[in-house]
Amino acid sequence: xxxxxxxxxxxxxxxxxxxxxxxxxxxxxxxxxxxxxxxxxxxxxxxxxxxxxxxxxxxxxxxxxxxxxxxxxxxxxxxxxxxxxxxxxxxxxxxxxxxxxxxxxxxxxxxxxxxxxxxxxxxxxxxxxxxxxxxxxxxxxxxxxxxxxxxxxxxxxxxxxxxxxxxxxxxxxxxxxxxxxxxxxxxxxxxxxxxxxxxxxx
Length: 202
Fold this sequence. Notes:
By secondary structure, the protein is mainly alpha-helical. The protein has one domain. Helix content is 68%, strand content 0%. It has helices at 2-29, 34-37, 51-65, 88-112, 119-139, 147-154, 161-169, 171-198. The longest helix is centred in the N-terminal third of the chain and has 28 residues, at 2-29. The chain is globular and about 55 Å long.
């Protein structure tokens, strides 16, 4: 169990680091260099670790719920520095989940083509795929501060700005409500995507 936990923590940390760095690189491409100036455009996990989201929450979720979940420190960016256009902030937000889906597809392909039958390789690669699908789907939920909310707000008419303020004000409460009462409807999607990508049933 301890070995499984260590591997899952390592996979989670690297996955959330790639997720956050992707945000930073897209923001940099679109004109905002905040992440670069703060030294966050690096894959060095020490620059991104959040003690609560990267250590405490993953440990609790693993030992209490049998799964692992967490996050890294968000990469900072200034939306006012981005190139004009209402989709700029949405592009920065989408970069994180897209990076996780790409990782899931790449490692899922390794399982699909049967590059190795070694049980340890299959188990670790499957962990990478599952954790990255989990991160992508969860972050696409349209509740602030998750990335999906930025995608949703990009299509909001300006006159609905007050609704955005409400979502941002009560985002944490809404996320907790979602996890406890609605996550059961999302988890089958994660299982289905895992099977489609890898050809392996969980």
